[in-house]
Specification:
Largest sheet: none
Number of strands: 0
Mean pLDDT: 90
Radius of gyration: 12 Å
Distance between the termini: 28 Å
Low-confidence stretches: none
Oligomer: single chain
Structural class: mainly alpha
CATH architecture: Orthogonal Bundle
């Protein structure tokens, strides 16, 4: 596989696992680790954009379907919304 793509995946894994709160570290790292090797390059870009949101915004979207800032309804966010640990 492309070396740049592998580096990009590692950055996403790191970004998901070191969020600032233990709960989000666990939730996002387990989600990313489960799906990262099945995502194509366009989905990885969507994942990167998704991970750029703050923890509170992602958690509210996941648990309560509260959207404080616009989280795009894209393929990654839909997969994440249905994801269960």
């Amino acid at each position: 596989m492309n070396n740049k793509l592998e580096i990009f995946k590692k950055k996403l894994i790191y970004r998901a696992g070191y969020r600032g709160t233990k709960e989000m570290d666990i939730l996002l790292s387990s989600f990313v680790n489960k799906y990262i090797n099945t995502f194509d390059e366009s989905l990885l870009v969507e994942l990167e954009e998704f991970l750029n949101f703050e923890d509170e915004i992602i958690l509210n979207y996941y648990q309560k379907d509260i959207i404080q800032k616009k989280i795009d309804e894209n393929r990654v966010s839909k997969i994440f919304k249905k994801y269960k640990i």
